[in-house]
Amino acid sequence: MNPAKVRKTYLQFFKQEDHAIIPSAPLVPENDPTTLFTGSGMQPLVPYLLGAKHPLGTKLVNSQKCFRAEDIEEVGDNRHTTFFEMLGNWSLGEYFKEDQLSWVFLLLVDELGLDPRRLYVTVFSGDEKTGIAKDKDSIAIWKKLFLEKGIRAGDVDMQTEERAAELGMGEARIFAFGAKKNWWSRSGVPENMPPGEPGGPDSEIFYEFDMVEHNSVFGKHCHPNCDCGRFMEIGNSVFMEYKKTEDGGFKKLSQQNVDFGGGLERIAAAVANNPDVFCTPLLSGIVEKIERLSGKKYKSKDTVSFRIIADHIRGVMFMIADGVLPSNTERGYFARRLIRRSVRHADILGIKQGKLANLVFPLVQEYGEVYPEVAETKEKIMREIRDEEEKFRVTLKNGLEEFKRVALGKMISGKQAFDLYQSYGMPLDITLELAQERGMAVDQEEFKKLFNEHRNLSRTASSGMFKGGLADHSEETTKLHTVHHLLLATLQQVLGKDVRQRGSNITSERLRMDFSFDRKLTQEELVCVENLVNEKIVQELEVVHKEMPKEKAEQMGAEMEFGAKYGSVVSVYIVQDKHGEVFSKEFCGGPHVASTKGMGIFKIIKEEAVSAGVRRIRGKLT
Questions:
Q1: Least reliable range by pLDDT among 439-443, 503-507, 600-604
Q2: Whether the Cβ atoms of residue 90 and residue 61 lie closer than 8 Å to each other
């Protein structure tokens, strides 16, 4: 069963269990300022996990494209990748542990054909710091599921990986670990979670590759969380039932949620009983292309270079398809880094200059049907890779000359390494490789300190530029900001009160609003929205600014900005006619015009989907 069939089988299985199939969100998060990339299937669904109503119901399933920048340095082994697809299913208060664990076990064993004797699971052992109890329910459910397949599954409380390596597995099949391994939130362990963040205990599923022998370098005994390669995690059911409170404690969410994530590459590897994800059809096509371009074999001393190039070109392909172009800041930095690392390893393999872009062809062939954006932007992707390689070869030449100049003694300082990065475009990993070849060390701590300072300045400048979604406080931007308030109120009148703002960006040229809605607007609805906004502009409504307690603003029904945190006293802008009849009221820091008189005519430029249950309108004043 190839990965495409695994993906289809997964989606159809949960569709038959009354789950609505939702599309993958973009790699660039629309409404999550906490992270640069979509790194999990649950990320776009956080509002619904916290209680908002999803337009497609309470049972959802999809395959989400993900990118995790923190895994760049891990790429090179048989299972780590930066880009991956996460097969996910969610219950928004509909079902919980019994149904979830039963379904995923049935899917893996009966539908995908995995041998249940090769499956091992972990559960949450409890957390003394928070007082959250051990997940005994999941242990009981797993025991029953294994017994139905004729397997008696013992359980053992390991707490930590170190203890597991010391004790060994014995006859157990169910292992309890602490919060570091079996608690899930976007922020990690409970103490790292900010107030308002959802999280909960999880239960991971591991597949055992019996052809892999334990390597004692990773501990005395093997266990499911061991890194020796014998076990691979293929799925994780998160029981998201808690929310961090302002005082640092935890309380139950209004609904008990399920958030399952299973890496498509890893599940496909388990189905093939091959522990190398780069041998699945998702990546084997590009690996074979690298073999042809380099004249070398994948299974050789150069395997790591093959894996780095295959992973990085796939990752950058999806990034560029979603609008992320190589640059020195924010997301663009990672696109640039992936390409430049690929160039470095292409040189190691002897691939001719300018040929890296050709590796896009087998990837488009594999992914183009499921993700048409990569096929539609193929030429652009190839052009960006060629251009970046050409630029890098110029900077690499200059950087190598500068490296030779500073490569004296036994240590390259963090400042020298950062200057090589900042001024010559030399990624740290290339500096590390060059230093290692000369028997030198690099002060990585100082480099990271300087790099983080540089990144924070960049983010501060970026957030300042678009504070409150505004590019500036010019007259035209201020007019469009007021129109933005009129547009939200109009959408609620035309489409229903459940419409909520999910993001905004306003310049002097145009406004952009993201809002919750589950379908494309009809032409009649677009005309109605446009006309109503213009009707309110012509009525010369006044815009009143008031400061008031947050509770009072909430009582009067003022719209709140999605994801924003407010103090006890808030700023509210009210748009009303001369008789005091209110059309719009929103929490907002301004600025706004005093009246809609003479603002111009509002025109909708475009209406489109941006993610599951979220639409986008672009408009301007003429």
A1: 503-507
A2: yes
User: For residue 467, what pLDDT is reported?
Assistant: 46
Would you state the pLDDT for residue 463?
A: 45
Q: How far is it, in rounded angstroms, from Cα 166 to Cα 154? A: 18
Per-residue H/E/C for 51-95? CCCCCCCCEEEEEEEEECHHHHHHECECCCCCEEEEEEEEEECCC
Q: Encoding tokens for residue 274?
A: 């091959």
pTM of the model: 0.70
Give the tens place of pLDDT for each residue, 183-233: 988 788 888 888 888 889 999 999 999 888 898 888 999 999 998 889 999
Q: Can you read off the two tokens belonging to residue 177?
A: 């670990």
Burial string for 379-389 (b: 16+ CB within 10 Å, else e) reads eebbebbbebb
100: burial class by Cβ within 10 Å (0-12, 13-18, 19+)?
buried
Smallest CA-to-CA distance from 596 within 481, 434, 443 is with 481
Domain tally, the chain: 4
How far is the C-alpha of 458 from the C-alpha of 470, rounded, in Å? 17
- The CA-CA-CA angle for residues 54, 59, 61, to 5°, reads 100
* Cα gap 112→288, rounded to integer Å: 26
Q: What is the DSSP letter of 110?
A: I
306 shares a domain with 271 = no
Q: 339 pLDDT band (50/70/90 cuts)?
A: very high
pLDDT of residue 338: 94
**Helix-helix angle 428-437:444-465, to 10 degrees:** 170
Highest mean pLDDT: which of 265-274, 431-440, 469-478, 580-589?
Answer: 265-274
Q: Does residue 599 form part of some domain? A: yes
- Of residues 253, 203, 211, the one with CA closest to residue 228: 211
Range of the domain at 420: 407-465
- Check whether residue 256 and residue 326 sit in a common domain: no
Residue 401 located in a structural domain: no
Give the Å distances, CA to CA, from 30 to 26, 89, 461: 8, 21, 19
Residue 229: what pLDDT?
A: 87
Minimal CA–CA distance to 314: which of 280, 364, 239? Answer: 364
CB 299 within 8 A of CB 310: no
- Nearest 5°: CA angle at 584, between 579 and 585? 105
Domain of 22: which CATH number?
3.30.930.10
pLDDT value of position 33: 67
| Same structural domain, 242 and 211 | yes
Which of 301 and 465 is assigned the larger pLDDT?
A: 301
Q: How far apart are CA 429 and CA 550, in angstroms?
A: 49
What pLDDT score does 82 carry? Answer: 95
Domain termination residue (choose one: 365, 393, 421): 393
Q: Which 3-state string (H, E, C) describes 433-459?
A: HHHHHCCCEECHHHHHHHHHHHHHHHH
